Amino acid sequence: MATVMGAEQTTRSWFWRLRDSLHRFFDSDIFYSFRRSPVTVLAFVTTVIFFVAAFAAPILAPFNTNDVATLNLMDAFRPPAWMAGGSSEHLLGTDEQGRDVLSAIMFGTQVSLIVGFLSVIFSVVLGVGLGLISGYVGGRTDHLIMRIADVQLSFPAVLVALLLFGFAKAVLPRGLQDAVAIYVLIVAIGLSNWVQFARTVRGSTMVEKSKEYVQAARVIGRSPFAIMVQHVLPNVMGPVLVIATISLALAIITEATLSFLGVGVPPTQPSLGTLIRFGNNFLFSGEWWMTIFPGLALVILALAVNLLGDWLRDALNPKLR
Amino acid sequence: MSQTGNTQPLLRVENLRVEFPTRRGTLVAVDDISFHIDEGEVLGVVGESGAGKSLTGAAIIGLLDPPGRIADGQVIFNGKRIDNFSYEQMRRLRGDQIAMVFQDPLTSLNPLYTIGKQLTETIRTHVSVDERGARTRAIELLNEVGIPAAERRVGQFPHQFSGGMRQRVVIALALAANPRLIIADEPTTALDVSIQAQIISLLKRLCREHGTAVMLVTHDMGVIAETADRVAVMYAGRIVEVGPVQDVIKRAQHPYTHGLMGSIPVIRHDVERLIQIDGAMPRLTDIPSGCAFNPRCPRVFEYCRVERPELMDVGATRAACWLFDEAREQAGGAR
Amino acid sequence: MLAYIVRRLLHSILVLIAVGFIAFSLFTYVGDPINNMVGVEATEAEREWARKALGIDDPFPVQFARFAWHAVQGDFGQSFRLSIPVETAIGDRLPATLELVFVAAVMALAIGVPLGVYTGLHRDGAISRILLTASLVGISLPTFLIGIILILVFSVWLGWLPSFGRGATVDLWGWESNLVTWEGFKSIILPSITLCLFQLTLLMRLVRAEMLEVLRTDYIKFARARGLTNRAVNFGHALKNTLVPVITITGLQIGSLIAFAIITETVFQWPGMGLLFLQAIQFVDIPVMAAYLCLVAFIFVVINLMVDLLYYAIDPRLRLEGTGHAH
After folding, report:
1. Quick check: A306 contacting C, CB < 8 Å?
2. Annotation: CATH topology of C87-283
3. Which helix (H) or strand (E) holds B140?
4. What is the ipTM, given to two decimal places?
C-alpha cells in the first residue's frame, strides 16, 4: 500500500516539477527576448521546418529520390511548376535523371544536417576536452595545445578539411573509401572547428582551478579534476551553446563546399552541396532550377541557424542585460 | 580668485530624477534630489555603492549612458539651465566649464596616444592656440600636478606611468581648460592608500589655487573629512542629510548618517563595538514606501512608512527625517 | 625588441619544419612511391633503380634532410598527373591566384572596413540594420554558391562578363596579368567579387564589434567628458584603437583568401594554384599536394610574422622592455 502511494506521489511530483520549470522558462529573460524578436522566431520556425522535412523525408517527400526504380527518364528536365512545361507533381522541377528536386532537397538536407551535427558534436567533445586538460594541467601541455590551436586558427576550415580528406584518401585503400567517406568528412570538419571551444573552456577552467575548493577536494579524497569539471561545465554551457550553434552553420556550409568540390559525401547519398554540383553542369543550358533551389535551401538553412546563434549570444550575454 | 559678494551658487540641482526604463518597469536611480555647490567650494557626496552618487555626476555633465535619462528636474549652471542642452551645447561646456574625473586612471587614458597628445588636443579644443602653445601649456600643467621631468614625459605613453602619476595626468587633463567645476567620481578608490593622500592634497591645492569647485563623489568618509567643505549623504537615490562637513560628521542628525559615522573606527575613541546598521540598502526595484531607510532605522515610527520626508533644517545641517518635524513626530508616537 | 623578433622567427621556423614533416610523410610513405614513380608494371631492375634514386633504404633523418633540402629550393619532383616538374606547374599558376587574391583583398578592405566603422558609429540606424542583416546573409552564403549565382546572372542571363578562365591576359616580363587591360579585367571581376564577399562580411562584422567595444571604454568616456569634438572622439581615438587589432586580422585574412581561392578557382575554372591543388587531391598527386602544403604554410608563416611585427610597431604597450619604467 505504501509503495503504491509512493509511486503515485513520485509521478505527481515529477509532473509538478516539469510544470514549474516550464513556467520558469517561459517567464525567463531568455524566452522574453525570444518572443520580442520576430526575426528570431521566424528563424526558429524555419529551422524546425527544415528539421522535420529532413528527418521525416522518407514519409513526407513526394518521391523517394534514392530509389532508382521510381525514376522515370521521361520526366527529366521538367521546370518548376509555375513555368511552362512544369507539372504540379514536381513543384520544383526535376533533374536530368527525372529525380524530383523538392524530394532531393529534403533527402539532401537530411545528409547535410547529419554531417553537420555529428561534426559539431565531435568539435565540442574534442574542444571541451582539450580545453579542460589545457586549463587544468597548465605548463608545457597547455602551451603546446594552445600553439597548435593558434596555428590551426590561421588555416580556414575548408583547407583543413581538404587536407585531411586528401590525406585520408591517399592513405586508405580504394575499396574502403566510399564507405568511410562520411566519417572522414565528419572528422575533418570537426577537427577544423574545435579551437573556439577549447579556448573558452580553458579560460573557465583556469579561473576555477585557482579556487580553493579544488585544493580542498584533494583533502577530502575526491579527485580535484572531477570536482572542477563539475563546476566548470555549468559555467561554460552558455558560451559553448552559442559557439556550437554558429559552428553548426559553418559545418553545414563547409560540408556543402566540400561536396561541391567533389571531396565530400559520396554521390550515392547526395547532400545539398552534391545536388548543387550536379545541377551546376546544366546551368548554361538553362536548367537553372536544379542548382538554384538546393542552393536556396542551403542558404536559408544556414541563415536560420546563424540567426538563432546570434540571438542566443545576445540573450546569454550578461553585459547586454 | 575668491568670489566674495557673489551670492548665486555655481551649480544648482533641483528635483533631479534619473530613470532607467527596463522591461520590468522603470527604475528610479536618483529620486528627486536638490542641492547646490558654490563657487570654489568642495561638496562631498557620500553614500554606499548604488546610492546614485555617480549617476548624479553623470547627469550633471550630460553623460548618462542610455537608456538612462533625466526624467524630471533641472540642472542650473552659472544661472543657465543646462539639462536640456543639445549634445553640441553640452560638449562645449564639458572640459571648459565642467570637467569630470573617473575612478580608474589606467582605463581613463587612451593607451595609444602619448599623454602630450591627449593634453594638447584637449587644450586646443577649448582654447585657440597653436600646437606649440598647447605643448607649452601641457608641460606647465604637468608641472603643476607634480610630474617630474615634464618635458621628457610629455612624449610618453600612459602605460609608462605608475598609478598615482596617471591620476595626476588625469587631473591635469581635467584642469586643462580651467573649468569652474570638477566632478570627481571616486578619484582615489583605485589607488594605493599611500598615493590616495597625495592625490587628495593635490586636488585640494589646485582647486584652491584656481578657485575651482569640486563635487567629490566617494564612499570614503575619511577623504570627505579631509577635503570637503560641505557634504551630502545619499541613500537609495535620495539625499538624506546635507550640511557643513564637521557638523555632519560630529553631530549627525539623520539616523543613517549617524550609523555611518558610528561605523567608522576612530583611533582616539575606545569602543567595545562599532555601530552597525542591520540590513542592506534596498535594491532599486524594492524601495520601501515613505522614507527609504525605514526598515533599518532604529528610531522608526508609523509616519515614516507613510510619506517620504523632505530635507528640513536641523541645527547647522538639513536632514530628511520625520523625527525633526515636531507635529508628525508627536502624532506618530516617536520613541 | 630583438628578443621579440628572434622568438617569432624561431616559432615560424618550427612551424615550417612541422609542416615540412607532414608533407614529407605524405611524400614518402603514402601509397607506394616506387609505384608512383615507375608505374605498376615496372620490371625488377626498374624498381631497383627507382629504389636507389629515391633513396628509400636510407635512414629516416637522411631522407628527411634530402626532402627538406630539395623543398627549400622549390624542387618537389614531378607531378604524377601532369608529368611536369611541380615547381613549373605551381609557378605557372601562382600569378593567377595571387592577382585574384590581391584584387579580392583590396575590395574586402576598401568596402568592409568603412562599412564596419559606419555600422559601429550609427549603431541603431536604419542603414546599419540593413547592412547587418545583409552581413548575416553574407556569412550564410557559401562562396561557391555566390560564384554560381553571379555566373547565372552576369554570364548566362545578361551575357556581360565571361564565366570561366582568365581570358585575355597580358604578359608582363613573365607574369601573366589580368589587371592591365579592360578585357583582361573583365575576366577577373566575377571571381574576385565571389572571393571577397565572405571576407568582406567578416571584416565588417569584426570592425563593428571592435568599434562598439572601444566606444564603451572609459577613455572614450573621459574624452567626451573633456569636451572633445565628435570627430576627435570617433575618428581620432575610437578609430585608431579599433584599427589596431583589425590590422592584424587583415593579415590573416590574406592567408584565408588564398585557401578560399580553391573554391573560387573551381567554380570559374580559374587556372590558379587552388585548382591545381584540388585536382591533385582528386588524383592523389602526392608531389603537388606536398608542395602546395609547404608553399601555403610558408606564405602563412611569413604573413603571420609580418603581422606580428606590424602589431609591435603600432602598439606602444608592447615596447615596454625598451623604455625606462615608471616610478
Report:
1. yes
2. MetI-like fold (1.10.3720)
3. helix B131-144
4. 0.85
